[in-house]
Description:
Elements (H helix, E strand, L loop, with lengths): L3 H26 L3 H25 L4 H23 L5 H17 L4 H11 L6 E4 L25 H15 L3 E4 L8 E2 L2 E2 H7 L4 E6 L6 H10 L2 E7 L3 H8 L3 H15 L4 E6 L4 H4 L2 H10 L4 E6 L15 H16 L4 E5 L18 E4 L4 E3 L6 E2 L1 E2 H6 L4 H5 L2 H13 L5 H4 L15 H11 L2 E2 L2 H8 L1 H28 L10
Parallel strand pairs: 1-2, 1-10, 2-5, 5-6, 6-7, 7-8, 8-9
Antiparallel strand pairs: 3-4, 10-11, 11-13, 12-14
The structure holds iron/sulfur cluster.
Amino acid sequence: MATERELAYRRREAKAARLKTIARLIPVLKNIKPLAWYLAKSWEKQIRKSTEQNIARREKPPGAVRDRAEMGIAILRTVTRAIIEDRLSPRTVEKLLKVLLAEAIVKEGEISIKEAFRQKYGVIPPAFMLISPTKKCNLYCIGCYADSDRTEIKLSWPVLDRLVTEAKQFWGARFMVFSGGEPLMYEDEGHTIMDLVEKHDDVFFLMYTNGTLIDEKLARRMAGTGNIMPAISVEGLKESTERRRGRGVFDSILRAFENLRKEKVFFGISLTVTRNNADEVFSDEVVDFYFGQQGAHFAWVFQYMPIGRAFTLDLLPTPEQRLRMYRRAWELVYKKHLFLVDFWNSGTATHGCISAGRSGGYMVVNWDGTVTPCVFLPYSPVNIYEIYGQGRNLIDVWANPFFADLREWQRRYGYGRNLAAEGRVRNWIMPCPMRDHYGELYELLKKHRPRPIDENAAEALTDPEYYQGLVEYDRKVASLLDPIWEENYLRGNAGGQPGSS
Ligand code: SF4
């Protein structure tokens, strides 16, 4: 008899197969709009039905089950809308459905590879990797988390290519992220980032970029490969964006949007929220401007982290701002069905922290080969050049004791635990070891002594005021957000649904 796991795999395979069939029917479907909407709606209905069943089982925090389902529905509606409105190139539609939705989201990677990994190591592997291929950037933004500038430090092409190949081969990964520096400035041995994207067309890439280098030719190339979604960084509207990123940058970004719209690329925005712009970024005006007028398909929101250039605790959104953002972000997902992911208010949908190579999570490789648990956790126990030089591979990186201990912390926190059988799951609205539980992370940093990746990270580690400030911040955030977690996620099942407490 098939086990629960095998049944779950079969369900995922069946859903992925359905998506691939739909992909083949798109040329017909997009001309019969009511039929396309009918298919999307019936899929949605199934998601809602299984959500209620999962909530009733109480194996996972019920509110988190609801949030995750609503995020899935928002993504489904976003893609359906874009297809029906003919806003995506044929190749983009194909790759979105077959690679991003079917392989990366529904199956969460190649099932046979994931299962082989699980049998050997006892857990499901990470689902993706974030690679910052170069430190170089053509802008010099205030507070850049990567402290990027014109410095040319980059991964070699063979290593970059090998990282993607190994993530596919050992983890079954079908999704990959580029961050910066500016990924579009990467060049080695005559190869660029787009060469990598084209070479690995069984992977879908998300690229954080400042957007200034996306001309018509590049947008056309993206539409032609179809397996890349650029997320262009903004800070709100023109004034806030140029205050941080420099004069003239906003107009370059608008030109990039225009090129991407014209060529029908699946593009979006990424926003950094500080104490100064927290209320602006989620305003109706900003949302309408980007999603409505500019045609962005998605938004990734990052609350400021006190790392990188001129780091300071003074820019962290206040606990009250975090609560307002939490309500607003989920309102946009639940009511407007926008594909909007807010790190960290969407932590309920990812079941907490995804760093350190957690199952279905990720890890980061930087331009100099340093590997960190997360882009916002700038401490590295291992360097990919050393690993490869010793004849080892990505699995050895994953097995590093610091990463393993962080994964154990995530498990104790609640990831993968059965609520009904094993009891308590801690608050996933404040899931971050770096920012929300610094006292606990600090103990792990003391134990494993991973190397700070830059002077800023080294300075933070030895600064008692930084430690005290973050611990105090965490205490205040918890006193505001813990009651909501208890009420909406553990006792009740409202999740981030508008109108809940
Ligand atoms: S370390 Fe923090 S920022 Fe990174 S994945 Fe975990 S929760 Fe998110």
